[in-house]
Amino acid sequence: MDDPNARGTHYRSGAFQAWDVTRYLSGDMAQAWQYVYRCGCKGSAQDAITDLRKAVDFLEDWCAHDVPVREVDPDVRHRNNRLLCDTNAVEEWKVPILDRIFMADAYVGENMAGEKFHGHSLVKSAIIPAIQREIARREAA
User: Residues 6 or more apart from 89 whose CB is under 8 A from it?
Assistant: First the structure.
């Protein structure tokens, strides 16, 4: 059996592995989520910027294709929320991005205004711009 401690530390934060959340997301969104989640956990400052650019690439690809959104079990939502609330595991700037990636891919229903929710608009209006701001902040440092 695999020893979970033998894997790179960038795969684990607290009690979770990245795939404890991403196994329930579609391919592109799982990749985007993991790139943001592990950003800055290994390699150089340039590697972190590259990871964020890769996340944007996966998000743009997801928006370009009509990937069906499916409802996710409430236990999985709870696991995602517990992970994002662990301030020792996840840097604060990542929390809204990771939460929105999860929501865009895994929530079926209506927004607070009672309109049908569509993850593509959330990705384009909030998630990608937030990642781009983080890229710009890192490039300016």
Answer: 13, 14, 16, 83
C-alpha to C-alpha distance for 3 and 9, rounded to whole angstroms: 13
Nearest to 132, CA basis, from 32, 49, 63: 49
pLDDT per residue as tens digits for the range 77-103: 877 787 777 777 788 899 899 989 998
The total number of residues shown for the chain amounts to: 141
Query: What whole-number distance in Å separates Cα of residue 30 and Cα of residue 16?
Result: 15
pTM of the model: 0.84
- Residue 109 carries which DSSP code? S
Q: Are 126 and 100 in contact (CB under 8 A)?
A: yes
Which residues contact residue 92 at a Cβ distance below 8 angstroms, ignoring those fewer than 6 apart? none
User: Residue 33 pLDDT more than 90?
Assistant: yes
Angstrom distance (rounded) from CA 60 to CA 63: 5
65 versus 113: the higher-pLDDT residue is 65
